[in-house]
Amino acid sequence: MTETAIMDAGAPQHHVMVLPFPAQGHVIPLMELSHRLADCGFKIDFVNTEFNHDRILKSVQNKGPIPEGIRMLSIPDGMDPADDHTDIGKLVGGLPAAMFSPLEEIIKIKKIKWVIADVSMSWALQLANTVGVRIALFSTYSASVFALRMKLPKLIEDGVIDESGNVKMHKTIQLSPPIDSTEIPWVSLGSTTERRRANILKVINTNQLMELAEAVICNTFREVEPEALALLPNALPIGPLVALMSKLTGNFWSEDQTCLTWLDKQAPGTVIYVAFGSSAVFDATKFQELADGLVLSGRPFLWVVRPNFTQEIKEEWFNQFKQRVAGKGLVVTWAPQQRVLSHRAVACFMTHCGWNSTMEGVLHGVPFLCCPYFSDQFCNQSYVCNVWKTGLKLCANEQGVVTKEEIKDKVAQLLGAEDIKARAITWKNKACASIGEGGSSHQNLLKLVKLLREG
What we know:
Blueprint: E1 2-5, E2 14-19, H1 24-39, E3 42-49, H2 50-59, E4 70-75, H3 88-110, E5 114-118, H4 127-130, E6 134-139, H5 143-150, H6 152-157, E7 172-173, E8 179-180, H7 193-207, E9 213-218, H8 226-230, E10 235-237, H9 258-264, E11 271-275, H10 284-296, E12 301-304, H11 315-325, E13 329-332, H12 337-341, E14 346-351, H13 355-363, E15 368-370, H14 377-388, E16 391-393, H15 404-415, H16 418-435, H17 440-453
Parallel strand pairs: 2-3, 2-5, 3-4, 5-6, 6-9, 9-10, 11-12, 11-14, 12-13, 14-15, 15-16
Antiparallel strand pairs: 1-4, 7-8
């Protein structure tokens, strides 16, 4: 175990461990929650895998002092140094064995009374039995998907899918939003049948531990998911969680701040912001169609292309593309997303529909162009396009490719849809009200603080 002190804010009375799943979309919202709790006087131990711990610290080098109240800890993830630490399927299998004993040790030594564990790390619920710690779960996906997770055994029993994630019955599952059986998150998680089966069995087995959680903290808000939240009696929706610009965000890559200066030079409501999160991977055909589609749209664009977004594009071609679009389009490795989404120049958000990105888009009132990649992202797309009606779906052809013509047409359609823009602003206002003084999420945050102080 290694430890890097951020700062001890004096001697806070209450001590909480925060345990995210080792993926970007999980670390960021839990870091945002940690800042809220630190501001309330809690001392936070934030536990990453060693691999991600190093990435985060490198990404914030030369950015001045790191905020008070949080201490960053790291534990091995059970993988060999030569392994691909971004291989989620392989990573999941080794985490419990690698992390459980070190977590017990930290809790005992520091006399921690509360652990806030990512739902995707729900094996940590067993700590309640082994070291007597109290546990709250944190859902990094929607309340609807959390409710669907709890229904997974029944879906298998009813023959909708089997234990390997194969769809056996095409039907619409009546949740809000309605979910097609082909878009159940666990159907697309895992590159092989064996991995999908292992993932599904893990979900089912850990569901049985859920009663050990004293609360389920959700990065959502009551007004945006009322029906789904009604199915989760111990849910505390406290979102949308906002990344404060002066705080450590937990990014794995350094943010390119120059894109903000570029945005300042663009006309209001003209820029397409394109970002597909930390996990999506495009082959050469999909990548080039996207590139050509952005050019064909005739709009200025800001495109985030992280280092492992594609392995098939030749560097020479990509450099020529960036030179060709210079002045009209900007490509960066990673962006300060909330500052981008709040910028007056941004017209829409082309996104993979990860829940974190979805909540950020809602909070800033930005219309969506939806292009989900896997897991819960199809459910989130359904919310955007069918329930909130704040965006449009990018439809792939029979080869699974979103063509440049489709991109051009949907950009034009979305940016001409005043009704969609108006609904996006309506949801922005509701989201802002929820986290404001007296709002539903603000009240739930106060309830969480009171609960954690009972420890």
